[in-house]
Design goal:
The protein is mainly alpha-helical. The chain has 14 helices and no strands.
Length: 275
């Protein structure tokens, strides 16, 4: 039961990140109130459909400052890989409501575009605008501080990435996310700190033992520590997990620190050829 709690919390976070606006707060402005109503009509249709986008267009026409409609209209472009169209719309939403949408744009820059510098700028800017917790990414999988750390990691600044991750993980009000210990374990492996890598990867398994990727990096760390039995056993577990579907997946983008079955099989061939 303990392992189910993080999933439930993250589901709630993901569902509530961009909740539907309360149109009643726009009652004093008839055009913006009607724009909000148009947006509510838009989300009744399939995302990205002609009907949905037409209602968002009408919403924006009625109230050009209604940021929610720019953001929602942008999403289908992002998912379809039409990044120029997406950026024009999301930039407008951020211009109108930076506190609401800077974190979202920053996360998308990381997840979809690998624009690490842009993501860092957005998340750091958000931190200067609010005096409360900056919150989670759109999917709810990562706190934005962890996303920020991943940007620095991918840019090669391991010290800054480690500092941000440890600061977030040690916060009294923070519960580790689904992949946080996995990423810091990979970071330590890539930095050559193999014992530390194993410590964090084991913490990942204690929290949620459902990823073949965790065992893959454990295997690599054991290999570097000249522990052949643990190296091979973790590779075998990684393959078993991967073939059974216990892997990280995303329908739209490749995830940070993602590995594939072929990576495991190639490493397995190296391991068995030495036996």
């Amino acid at each position: 039961m303990k392992k189910a709690i993080p999933f439930f919390i993250l589901f709630l976070l993901s569902w509530n990140l961009y909740a539907q606006p309360n149109c009643e707060i726009y009652k004093a402005d008839e055009k913006c109130y009607n724009a909000c109503q148009e947006a509510m009509r838009a989300i009744r249709y399939e995302q990205g459909s002609y009907q949905s986008q037409a209602h968002f267009d009408k919403s924006i026409e009625l109230c050009p400052t209604f940021a929610y409609s720019y953001m929602e209209k942008a999403v289908p472009y992002l998912k379809r890989g039409l990044f120029v169209e997406w950026k024009a719309l999301i930039d407008k939403a951020v211009e109108l409501e930076p506190k609401e949408y800077l974190g979202y744009r920053g996360w998308c820059r990381l997840q979809f575009l690998r624009d690490y510098e842009g993501a860092i700028n957005d998340i750091e800017k958000l931190k200067t605008l609010v005096n409360y917790d900056i919150g989670y990414c759109q999917t709810g999988d990562y706190h934005l501080s962890i996303a920020l750390a991943l940007c620095y990691k991918e840019l090669g600044d391991m010290d800054k990435a480690r500092e941000l991750m440890l600061e977030q993980l040690s916060s009294k009000k923070f519960s580790a996310g689904l992949y946080d210990y996995y990423h810091i374990g990979v970071l330590e492996y890539e930095a050559g700190n193999h014992e530390k890598a194993l410590t964090y990867l084991d913490k990942q398994l204690e929290a949620n033992d459902y990823l073949g990727e965790t065992y893959y990096f454990k295997a690599l760390a054991h290999k570097q520590l000249n522990q052949p039995e643990q190296y091979l056993q973790n590779l075998k577990t990684a393959e078993t997990y991967y073939r059974s579907g216990k892997i990280r997946t995303d329908p739209y983008a490749e995830m940070i620190d993602k590995i594939y079955l072929n990576d495991i099989l190639e490493e397995m061939e190296k391991a068995t050829s030495k036996e």
